[in-house]
Design brief:
single chain; 528 residues; alpha+beta; D-Maltodextrin-Binding Protein, domain 2; Dipeptide-binding Protein, domain 3; 2 domains; 7-stranded mixed sheet; 4-stranded mixed sheet
Length: 528
């Protein structure tokens, strides 16, 4: 359901009323990307929802301020030698907000529920590494057959189908958060409502008012409550980024989760370090259809990549983004080797353009005898500007572009349903900090995301070998080889690395810039 926008006037009235009723309390007024569709962690799919759920619940492991995995409900764990069995030891002082102890059975209940088809979990497949999970989610097996068991209240054993070195990262995702079984059984879908929700995080849900705010208050039963500085958090929805900026400038919010790119320079000039533009775990790219007659030629794809001035795109269109020279973004975890180098990125733009002209001319493609391709993108002023700029760059080497523009839902439905295209715009934000979460997209059997119809048995073999390798350095080397094939064959054309854009009050402490753009309110404090 499309949600209307909050106005600054309504926000001011709301905040004044709140301040009058909670004199002396330290409440964080936190701008969020929009209204959550749900607070059911098994049906969530957006960053805005993740921000709230991260404050309400604590998983087995959590992110700290630097997006490093640290103990949560699990104070320690062991992993079997073959990397398939994780034994978690739950802390004795973990409690639900109603005082009930958090026990291993609560996690068993939650992990079975997310895989039950009737739950309709959008992100269930993120936990498919658990043995039997996929079969349960597809209705082929009972939830009790999953590799999840609780030998006692403080021990949880999760068995994986095969070694998954990034499994702990997966558990930081909101889909791995526990549920209070008695509340879900008593209230059904309404367990997410204020007064019904029982949570185990640093905060509890006080109210949820559409288009106004979601109010959380400190959970005094949280095991680390003594170190939580805030008395409450109000998540305020802003679909228009400029509206949050105005509220921040008026002192009505202490942070904004995103910024209008055209306003970044002004904000930097006026507020300096309050503007946080940080590399984000995502890549903006174009997909090449490898079944297309012209684009099936790897030299043509290479020439089209060479001639794109990514620095221009970053500087002139997407303020704060970085030119992409690989598909896996820099700073990602479990990638000790880093992405492979592609030789032509060391060349000047003039030399790259000359080389591209040489390649295409040998195939009879010149500005005088041009080829024509269709470029499909979803409606957005920035996407339009990128497409227009790239069309001009390609025209210089003899490739003319025709545009096909659709709204986002139709655009991605066309790609997902294997509709015909030549070149199509897309983007990917990592669900967890591991190169597999990017490189898996073009495995030949990935029908959902392999828009390019890329089919390379050598690539698939390297990805399979990496999946079976539990030594992280050896695994990283295999993934680097796979990415080298990716950059040679170019199923996707990496253009830019995403950046997060935040506006953070100088009164805030505990907000550390990180590639995941996660900032748990549990670690935030606000000075007067």
């Amino acid at each position: 359901m499309k949600i209307g926008r909050i106005t600054c006037a309504a926000l001011s009235v709301s905040l004044l009323a709140l301040a009058a009723g909670t004199a002396g309390a330290v409440t964080y007024q936190r701008g969020n990307d929009g209204n959550p569709e749900t607070l059911d962690q098994h049906k969530t799919s957006t960053v805005a929802e993740a921000n709230i759920l991260r404050d309400l619940y604590e998983g087995l492991v959590v992110y700290n301020t630097k997006a490093e995995v640290i103990p949560g409900v699990a104070e320690s764990w062991e992993v079997s030698d073959d990397g398939t069995v994780y034994t978690f030891h739950l802390r004795d002082d973990a409690k639900w907000s109603n005082g009930d102890p958090v026990v291993a059975g609560d996690f068993v209940f939650s992990l079975r529920r997310i895989m039950t088809p009737e739950t309709g979990a959008k992100y269930a497949n993120i936990l498919y590494p658990i043995a039997g999970a996929e079969a349960v989610n597809k209705g082929e097996a009972a939830p009790e057959t999953m590799g999840v068991e609780a030998p006692d209240d403080h021990t949880l054993v999760i068995t994986l189908a095969q070694a998954t070195p990034y499994f702990l990262e997966l558990l930081t995702h909101q889909t791995g958060l526990p549920l209070h079984p008695a509340s879900v059984e008593q209230f059904g879908a309404d367990f997410v409502q204020p007064g019904n929700m029982v949570s185990n995080g640093a905060f509890v849900l006080e109210s949820n008012t559409l288009n106004d705010k979601i109010a959380l208050v400190k959970n005094e039963n949280f095991h680390d409550a003594a170190n939580v500085a805030l008395d409450g958090v109000n998540f305020l929805p802003f679909e228009e980024r400029a509206t949050c900026v105005r509220a921040w400038e008026a002192g009505e919010v202490q942070s904004c989760s995103d910024l209008p790119t055209e306003d970044v320079d002004r904000l930097r000039a006026e507020y300096g370090d309050a503007v946080r533009v940080v590399p984000y775990l995502g890549t903006y790219y174009y997909a090449f259809n490898h079944d297309d007659e012209l684009l099936s030629d790897p030299e043509v794809r290479e020439a089209l990549s060479m001639v794109i001035d990514r620095q221009f795109l970053a500087d002139e269109i997407f303020e704060g983004m970085l030119p992409a020279e690989s598909f896996v973004p820099p700073g990602i975890g479990n990638y000790s080797t880093g992405s492979p180098k592609t030789d032509y990125f060391d060349m000047s733009m003039l030399d790259r353009e000359d080389k591209a002209i040489e390649i295409l001319s040998a195939k009879g493609i010149t500005p005088e005898t041009p080829a024509t391709i269709e470029l499909m993108y979803n409606t957005s002023e920035n996407h339009k500007n990128v497409a227009t700029a790239i069309a001009e760059m390609w025209a210089n080497v003899g490739v003319n572009v025709e545009f096909n523009v659709r709204d986002a839902s139709a655009h991605y439905a066309h790609l997902r349903d294997k509709g015909d295209f030549d070149v199509a715009r897309a983007g990917w934000i990592g669900d967890y900090s591991d190169p597999q979460n990017f490189l898996f997209m073009v495995e030949s059997d990935n029908d959902g995301f392999n828009y390019a119809n890329y089919n390379n048995p050598e690539y698939d073999g390297l990805m399979d070998a990496a999946a079976a390798e539990i030594d992280l350095d050896k695994r990283a080397a295999l993934l680097q080889q796979a990415e080298a094939l990716f950059m040679r064959d170019l199923p996707f054309l990496p253009l830019l690395y995403y950046s997060s854009h935040s506006l953070v009050s100088p009164k805030i402490s505990g907000w550390d810039d990180n590639i995941q753009n996660v900032h748990p309110s549990r670690f935030i404090s606000i000075s007067e």
